[in-house]
Amino acid sequence: MDIDNILTNLVDLHTHLSTSTTPHLLWELAHSQGIRLPEKDYWKFIELVRIDKKSTVDEYHKFFDLIQIIQSSPFAVEQSTYNAMSLSYRKSNINIQELRMNPLRRNKEGLYDVDRIIFGALIGIKRAQMEYPVVGGMILEADTRFEKFQNEIIIEKAIKYSNDGVIGIDVSGPYQENFNLKDLQEPYKEAKKQGLGLTVHAGETSSAKEVWEALEVLNPDRIGHGIKSVEDKELLKELSKRGVVLEVCPTSNYLIQAVSSWDEFKSVIKTLKQYNVKFTINADNPVLLTTNAKQEFKKLYEKKIMGLEDIKEAIEVSKTATFIKQA
User: Fold this and answer.
1) Nearest-angstrom CA–CA distance, 13 and 318
2) Gap between the Cα atoms of 121 and 206, Å rounded
3) Which of 127, 209, 215, 321 could form a disulfide with 245 if both were Cys (CB 3.0 to 4.6 A apart)?
4) Which residue, among 264, 266, 216, 261, has the nearest Cα to 242 in the 3D structure?
């Protein structure tokens, strides 16, 4: 069977709203809202919202900051969400897409009501669903750089809008020494009780220890990235036993040097398969990294990291693991 026949009706469970929006829309949104950009030349501006070479984690997160400022209004969030979903369908035939965002990083530090920010994102999803054969949902992200009360607000909002298109919660952000995952233990339990899906960014550039902590403290359904799990055989067995799904993002992992080479990434996939750990393949930051789910699969196939049967299995895992109930 040809790979193009397999790569239809795809699913992407791990895409950030910040980096899923086209440069020309970001440019237009910035100008329409009177936001002063660090670059007045459009072609140079593109360099501020795209990566085409290896980067460090710190450099990587700086790209998010500018984009989140541009997206900081209900109108901008709505336009960005619609743009991200419609682009994913047209470019890579994504029929089921989970987007994720942090609403408190888009309300201009309280200038905009956070409910309106979330509502704007959900309207954008509804618009895309009216025009394209797609199903979408929004995951709200807590942040390692936030105070406990801020993250509690985000999870409370996720529960509030759980019947309107918010499908899950996540924790993301760079490593912070004073961040305590246990602060989110009770909010995560309540979110689970209210029917939300639980995921956590862990084990991307750190260690298997971070994945263990996420499992033991928050008991998530999925782990964002999680590739460092291959360092610990007992952890792999535990992930398999619990049926926790890893949201693997190949190009992202490669460009921020979470893996040193594609050979190392091949070893990661081989080990996950050996221990029967379920995983999905996702774009993570499709516009920032100039990729998409379809391209990710093709790259893995061409590099002989995954065969056709592996790809079909990963697609089926994504369809089963999605937090979108009507998918």
Assistant:
1) 7
2) 31
3) 321
4) 216
Q: Distances in Å between the alpha carbon of 326 and those of 17, 85, 96, 317?
A: 21, 17, 10, 16
| 235 exposure class (CB count in 10 Å sphere: 0-12, 13-18, 19+) | buried
Instruction: Give backbone dihedrals phi and psi of 145, rounded to 5 degrees, phi first.
Output: -90, -5
In whole angstroms, give the CA distance from residue 159 to residue 312.
33
Return the number of other C-beta atoms located less than 10 Å from residue 322's C-beta.
24
Report how far apart, in Å, the C-alpha atoms of 21 and of each of 15, 88, 241 are. Answer: 11, 10, 37
Render pLDDT for 62-87 as a digit per residue (tens, 0 to 9). Answer: 888 899 999 999 999 999 999 999 99
Domain extent listing, the chain: 3-320
10 Å CB burial of residue 147 (0-12, 13-18, 19+) is: exposed
φ and ψ at residue 179, rounded to 5 degrees: -80, 130
Query: Which residues have a Cβ under 8 Å from the Cβ of 214 and sit 6 or more positions away?
Result: 181, 200, 202, 203, 220, 223
- CA dist., res. 274 & res. 145, Å (int): 36
pLDDT value, residue 196:
98
Q: 3-320 maps to which CATH number?
A: 3.20.20.140
Q: Which amino acid is at 204?
A: E
Q: Name the β-bridge partners of 170.
A: 141
Q: What proportion of the chain, given as a percentage, has pLDDT over 90?
A: 88
327 confidence band (pLDDT: 50, 70, 90): low
| Inter-residue contact 236 to 275 (CB < 8 Å) | yes
Write the CA distances from 116 to 76, 78, 104, 105, 120, integer angstroms. 11, 10, 11, 13, 6
Distance CA 250, CA 284 (A): 9
Q: What torsion, rounded to 10 degrees, do the Cα atoms 47, 51, 54, 58 define?
A: 80
Fill in the amino acid letter for 190: E
